[in-house]
Design brief:
It is a single chain. The chain has about 400 residues and is of the alpha/beta class. It folds into 2 domains: about 120 residues, Aspartate Aminotransferase, domain 1 (Alpha-Beta Complex), CATH 3.90.1150.10; about 240 residues, Type I PLP-dependent aspartate aminotransferase-like (Major domain) (Aspartate Aminotransferase, domain 2, 3-Layer(aba) Sandwich), CATH 3.40.640.10. The protein has a 7-stranded mixed β-sheet, sandwiched between helices. It has a 4-stranded antiparallel β-sheet with strand order 9-10-13-12, with helices on one face. It has a two-stranded parallel ribbon with strand order 1-11. The longest helix is centred in the N-terminal third of the chain and has 21 residues.
Length: about 400
Amino acid sequence: MSATVLDVAAIRRRFSSLQSGFAFLDAPGGTQVPDEVGDAIARSLREASANIGAPYETSRRVEEILRRAKEDGARFLGGTPDEVVFGMNMTTLNFALSRAAGRDFEAGGEILTTALDHDGGVAPWVELAADTGMTVRIANATDDFAIDYDDLERKLSDKTRVVAFALASNATGSVADAERICALARDAGALSWIDAVHYAAHEPIDVQTIGCDVLLCSPYKYCGPHLGVGYVRREVAETWRPYKARPSASSPVGRRFETGTLPYELLAGFSATIAYLDSIGGMEAVVQYERSLGERFLAQLSDRVTIYGLPTMEGRLPTFLLNVEGVSANDAAHRLAERGIGIWYADNWYCVALTERLPKESLRVGFIHYNTAGEVDRLVQELEHLRP
């Protein structure tokens, strides 16, 4: 079967926010949203403002929204609807799930993270360790800001209870070998716990193939609403006692980690997001196109632009950390915004463990499937024109 060729012009017509000519090249910080997703959220507020369990039509509509969202989440991640969990956002959901898992942990145990992890995937373990007497260890990053697998394996031991890692770096775009890490965790008797927030916007996910125990992502990174979406492997979830309001549903198994009433209008928006992605050919359809944007960008840069991380598209997503010679990141970002190009500047990009190794301040560029080759070229030209 031949790959779907993206009709980017047709895709962009579905986004009111893309009609102004401003180039949103800031996908790692959140994506633009097609109009149909906003319409679905508004429609649910008009027609399904209720809660589940009531004997009237609006409640039945909410139940249908929840049922569909669970099925869409399962299809997107590769699990079953019962294993899908929703929360306020990835970080809040991660705190809730890590606390449930942590009931069984004891002092002296270890949690292994990596230097490339966003703090939303690390802070829950740091706080749990502070409460329980456990230790958080960090696997190093290579000089190209990829995971140092030799160091990760050295730091695994019979004390390791969880191996938590980012499937793709929110800062440098490097991609982890998830199957390898999950196998290592499994062999060590530890849980594998994945932050897929950045990765899920660019590549298809199959939790069964990966072999993970927990995986979390956020639809606002792939053209949806602010929401946390998670997968918890059934055999693991059934052993955890959740923190939640006691009358709240605990069946199917994924519901036990949803602490109370869900934001049903956002679940309707999530389903509309998945329908949108399906309509353009699914995540499989965006991979090669986004890769071509990244290759186009890298091929045109001069020596005035320093890329921190992997120098080619091999092993990475189209997310780039960079600086322009003689121009501060703060100044560059503001000047680019005045020229109609949106990118971010910051210090550690929430990769706290990399603080000492990253420049004091840097720019981050992130392409996604609604970006165009013309926008890439505009960015390169503007970067080259920046002067002190």
